[in-house]
Amino acid sequence: MKTVKLTHALLAATCLSAGAIYADTQVEPEHALHMLHTQDAQFEKQIIQVADNVYTAVGYHGANTSMIVGNDGVIIVDTLMSPTSAAEAMQAFRKYSDKPVKAILYTHSHSDHIGGANGFVGDTMPAIYATESFGSAEGVNQVVDPVKMKRNIRQFGRDLTGEEVTNRGVAPANTTDHDRMQGFLPPTIRIEQDGYQATIAGIELEFYFAPGETDDAMFIWLPKEKVLFTGDNFYSSFPNLYAIRGTAYRDVLKWSESVAKMAAFEPDYVVPGHTMPILDKAIATTALSHYSEAIRSIYDQTVDGINAGKSPELIAHEVHLPDHLQDKPYLIEFYGTVPHAVRAIYVGLLGWFDGNPTTLNPLEPKVQAEKIAQLAGGTEALIKQMNAALEAEDYQWALELADHVKWLPDADRSQARQVKIQALRALAAREYNAPNRNYYLSYANELESGKLSTIWF
């Protein structure tokens, strides 16, 4: 077991690795890799003693699982993705207690927190606690699961080679997933009241509703130990207010309010759903307060832009974290990003139309591409501009031009595909946001393999 205490010095050192680049997650390739490798320390595989009777397993899968030791049994908080990973974590926990599992607590219903439950169960079935709304994490968008699965694979880099992969922002790159969700056990006790209290194995617990990353989330408070389990509403990265794999709108304002509610407890110890626990009271409370403030600031700035009549793309390029939050290591955009959050807030509040009548009925992509080519002086001239953008390392522009060229019947689509592949890999090399990096690389590989040779999406 390793006992870890995050200090101001460690936080500052991590922060220095980021630099003042919060408006853009693109940096020099060497620096991007350095930052991602630094973040690896947040999920190094180990058991951490959080308090006298609280242990957290980090790095056994993508999420964390914790064990609270009571007088005649133990309580498990979240159960990882699969029974294989769960059983390994439980074996490690057994070095500190051989008492039976009396209860399992689910902070929310994402599969990486619930899929390994039976790996913690012994001869007697424990009580399993969750919110009354448990299971509603994905909202109404389950009908698009087929495309979400494809995008999920890209976001997390599940098909990347060992040389390509780094991490998942708040989790290691390589996890045991062959038996994912095969250990799930349904809740037996549904919590209907905010602030519900229970005593399990002599441990006093309080459960609080905390909509945010999911609308079925809760946080768990141990009043005697002053330990707070946040679920996925807090971890050491700017939060994933929108996931590029595709999600229903995550209520950003409620997310901010939920984290502020946590901070009001002034915990001595904070155990996030991913990344390292914080074992310093001053840092723990400050981090939660800053997290809530950061989310609320992005929301407020976006709403101001909306009410000023600005488009989501314009607002996404204008909104930034407040200056006093830009040196905080738990707000570096390793997982979520500010521009993604802005666009999600806009669509969540107003829908897709930006108010500009030009965008009410835009030209179809093929017609638009033909007109862009005409402006450029013809297809060959547009291809020349595409190649020039790649040569000049203007990779985003090269991508956009390639997407026009691919629609032109008199263009060499294979050339456009090659430009797009090269631009994607160049962007990936400079990207320290893990989902962006993984998506760029995964998509480039799919293009190269021919999987996306007809329709590029």
TrEMBL record:
Tree of life domain: Bacteria
Keyword set includes Metal-binding: no
Limits of the Metallo-beta-lactamase domain: 62-274
Matching InterPro entries: Alkyl/aryl-sulf_dimr_sf, Alkyl_sulf_dimr, Bact_Alkyl/Aryl-Sulfatase, Bds1/SdsA1_MBL-fold, Metallo-B-lactamas, RibonucZ/Hydroxyglut_hydro
Signal peptide: 1-23
Gene3D superfamilies: Alkyl sulfatase, dimerisation domain (1.25.40.880), Metallo-beta-lactamase domain (3.60.15.30)
Keyword Plastid carried by entry: no
Keywords: Signal
Protein name: Alkyl/aryl-sulfatase
